[in-house]
């Protein structure tokens, strides 16, 4: 079977499994090697896997190796050796700790220990310990997490298949040409480095950095499964949206509410309910690198919570989580730098909101005698006053540094603030940013969570939410250019990229709201009938539990179904107009796709075809591996080829255009007409007259023209 032309999703099941394995298995092994357990292994797997993939793609071509699974295995082996080294360092740090610290000294009182435990921001994830309770928590975390993931995969996948019913369909938008051709370039050259990928555009700064993690993953999937570049792109988009993103959300929910079914379902179901993510990034751009990068943020926040939460926990677990977070950082940066920027921003809010109050309590109690043994197992208790201050200021410094360095110029960030403040606030309140349909149920749950956080003085979810609100209001409504530049230049000043981040403000609050409602419903149902459970027969007890289960499932359905049938369905209907290869498609229509399918019948191997990237001609490279003069709408070409853009179709210019054609060894041009996505018409590359070229194949308006007028 020729899977390069596969169109049904059933044919691509092996490719899906390959994509899942690539994105989870390398990282899971490394995280497990660090000593993390349970859901943490799978929650942190994707960002660590992406780190290994993207770094391997940078290093191995410098060793003379072509990008392949072998390169990934080499990089993974090196990473495994690094993990072994980190594990030994952590073990030595723990064995060399002074006895007073291990027993809870450093001036932390027993009262402080109880205060820390009582004011916990979350039920902790399982740490590294030997108790039966901890091991049971690991197992409990994985089982409900898996159930929640299955639900999320089913919901998101069904929506994705509705959006992309044909596996070869592409988004008919500006950035599609580059992303598909970049994957083909990696397969063609064997170089997937983020330091060289941008060179395919032939721009003057062709050595500029461009995050290539997405394209590296897609190239591996295409290479290992034998499918075409468009199909591989859709497969990875599906796996990232339906597996990686909800997996991180589920783990973050468990970090907030504990490794139980309520928290797990909250994370899994809520991940399917945001109109702004992942669907917006599939329909705007499309922003594939940002789709991957932002899907990893939830895992980074869960790791941050594992390190910083107030409740006493294993020091070993905190150190293991810190090591895992360090391994995840390159994956975020090489997926997309502004995903790293967002993750650092959110993580900084968590650090400030958790370590700051703990530090104040420690200073207030520093004069008291005695110390609780478990208090040393909190991060502040272990670091002490000075160490905690250094940690807070270090995070603040990294935050400010990245916010100042990861910025884009106005030439690539043309978006303006075009909403008024009231409309922007309405977007936030209804969870419908940048004209997305409202998801009121999520907003209601977030409101419940907000009230719960205020009552329990759990500040970090409120601060993270406030941070996202500020970013969104500034980018869409601020009349002060300097303020927009300072806060949002790292995100291209793009309202849609910021809109995709609002989910991380809503998600923690909505998880808390969901688990609160879940607990209240459970209590209410369990109070029906006799108060003492032991007086009920076994059948009556089973019936009560069944009633609780049915009511809770109805609660979940009340959340999911209205949003899926409302906001998500509306988003998909909008995107479907562009996610298709149809007779009227602007970038690549059915006639043009037919011409591409016949290129190899007429164009000799290695022959470069003259194209206008704005009308889909450049996709000959991605679809059929036929070299083209431009691989991106933003590609630069020499001045002589620009002359062809304007005058090739003018027979009176043959004396000037034909020498250019011969000098560049151009024998064919794709004449795909005037339908363009970049609003820059190149009249010389359409309506080629017989004096200049001969049509060798055509379908409808689309034509492959041989430039016989210049080579006769």
Which strand-content bin applies to the residues? under 5%
What's the number of extended β-strand segments?
Answer: 4
Question: So how many helices?
Answer: 29
Q: Which stretches are low in confidence, meaning pLDDT under 50 for 5 or more residues running?
A: 99-134, 367-374
Strand line-up of the largest beta sheet: 1-2-4-3
Question: Which secondary-structure class do the elements indicate?
Answer: mainly alpha
How much helix is in the residues? 55-70%
Give a structural overview.
The chain is mainly α and 712 residues long. It has 29 helices and four strands. The chain has helices spanning 13-34, 39-43, 45-59, 69-95, 99-102, 110-118, 132-163, 176-189, 213-225, 229-257, 261-270, 279-283, 288-295, 297-308, 315-335, 337-365, 379-405, 421-429, 440-456, 460-477, 481-488, 495-501, 503-526, 538-576, 590-597, 619-624, 639-647, 654-663, 708-711; strands spanning 609-610, 668-671, 694-699, 702-706. It has a four-stranded mixed beta sheet. Strand 3 and strand 4 (702-706) form a beta hairpin. Helix 1 (13-34) packs across helix 3, helix 19 (440-456) packs across helix 23 (503-526) and helix 23 packs antiparallel against helix 24 (538-576). The two termini are 41 Å apart. The relative contact order is 0.10. Residues 99-134 and 367-374 have low confidence and may be disordered.
């Amino acid at each position: 079977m020729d899977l390069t032309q596969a169109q049904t999703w059933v044919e691509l099941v092996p490719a899906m499994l390959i994509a899942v394995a690539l994105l989870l298995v390398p990282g899971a092994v490394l995280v497990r090697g660090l000593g993390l357990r349970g859901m943490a292994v799978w929650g942190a797997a994707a960002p660590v896997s992406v780190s290994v993939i993207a770094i391997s793609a940078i290093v191995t071509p410098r060793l003379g190796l072509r990008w392949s699974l072998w390169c990934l295995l080499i990089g993974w082996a090196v990473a495994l050796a690094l993990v072994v080294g980190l594990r030994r360092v952590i073990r030595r740090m723990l064995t060399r700790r002074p006895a007073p610290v291990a027993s809870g000294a450093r001036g932390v009182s027993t009262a402080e220990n109880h205060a820390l435990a009582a004011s916990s921001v979350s039920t902790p994830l399982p740490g590294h310990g030997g108790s039966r309770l901890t091991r049971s928590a690991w197992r409990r975390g994985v089982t409900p997490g898996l159930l929640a993931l299955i639900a999320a995969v089913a919901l998101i996948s069904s929506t994705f298949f509705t959006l992309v019913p044909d596996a070869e369909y592409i988004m008919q938008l500006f950035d599609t040409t580059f992303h598909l051709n970049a994957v083909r370039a990696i397969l063609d050259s064997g170089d997937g480095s983020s330091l060289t990928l941008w060179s395919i555009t032939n721009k003057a700064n062709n050595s500029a950095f461009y995050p290539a993690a997405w394209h590296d993953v897609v190239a591996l999937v295409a290479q290992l499964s034998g499918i075409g570049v468009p199909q591989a792109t859709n497969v990875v988009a599906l796996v990232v949206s339906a597996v990686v993103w909800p997996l991180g959300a589920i783990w973050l929910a468990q970090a907030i509410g504990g490794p139980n079914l309520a928290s797990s379902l909250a994370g899994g179901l809520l991940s399917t309910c945001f109109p702004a993510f992942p669907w917006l990034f599939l329909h705007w751009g499309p922003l594939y690198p940002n789709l991957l990068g932002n899907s990893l943020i939830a895992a980074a926040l869960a790791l941050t919570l594992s390190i910083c939460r107030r409740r006493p926990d294993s020091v070993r677990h905190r150190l293991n989580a810190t090591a895992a977070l360090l391994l995840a950082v390159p994956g975020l940066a090489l997926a997309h730098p502004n995903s790293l920027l967002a993750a650092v921003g959110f993580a900084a809010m968590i650090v400030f909101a958790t370590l700051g109050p703990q530090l104040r309590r420690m200073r207030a109690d520093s004069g008291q005698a005695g110390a609780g043994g478990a208090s040393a197992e909190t991060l502040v208790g272990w670091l002490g006053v000075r160490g905690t201050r250094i940690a807070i200021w270090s995070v603040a410094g990294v935050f400010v540094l990245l916010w100042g360095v990861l910025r884009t110029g106005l030439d690539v960030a043309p978006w303006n603030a075009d909403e008024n403040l009231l409309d922007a606030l309405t977007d936030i309140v209804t969870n419908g940013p940048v004209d997305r349909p409202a998801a009121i149920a999520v907003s209601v749950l977030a409101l419940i969570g907000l009230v719960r956080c205020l009552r329990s003085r759990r500040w970090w979810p409120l601060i993270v939410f406030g941070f996202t609100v500020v970013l969104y209001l500034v980018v869409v409504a601020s009349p002060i250019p300097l303020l927009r530049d300072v806060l949002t230049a790292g995100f291209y000043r793009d309202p849609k990229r910021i809109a995709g981040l609002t989910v991380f403000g809503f998600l923690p609050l909505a998880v808390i709201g969901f688990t609160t409602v879940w607990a209240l419903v459970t209590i209410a149902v369990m109070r029906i009938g006799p108060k003492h459970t032991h007086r009920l027969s076994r059948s009556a007890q089973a019936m009560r539990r069944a009633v609780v289960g049915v009511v809770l499932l109805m609660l979940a359905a009340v959340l999911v179904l209205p949003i899926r049938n409302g906001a998500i369905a509306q988003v998909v209907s909008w995107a479907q107009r562009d996610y298709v290869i149809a007779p009227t498609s602007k970038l690549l229509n059915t006639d043009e796709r037919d011409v591409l399918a016949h290129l190899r019948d007429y164009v000799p191997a290695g022959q470069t075809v003259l194209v206008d990237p704005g009308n889909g001609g450049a996709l000959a490279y991605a679809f059929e591996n036929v070299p083209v003069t431009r691989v991106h709408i933003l590609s630069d070409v020499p001045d002589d080829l620009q002359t062809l853009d304007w005058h090739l179709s003018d027979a009176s210019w043959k004396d000037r255009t034909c020498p250019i054609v011969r000098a560049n060894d151009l024998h064919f041009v794709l004449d795909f007409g005037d339908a363009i996505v970049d609003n820059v018409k190149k009249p010389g590359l359409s309506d080629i007259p017989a004096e200049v070229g001969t049509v060798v194949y055509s379908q409808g308006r689309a034509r492959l023209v041989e430039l016989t007028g210049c080579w006769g």
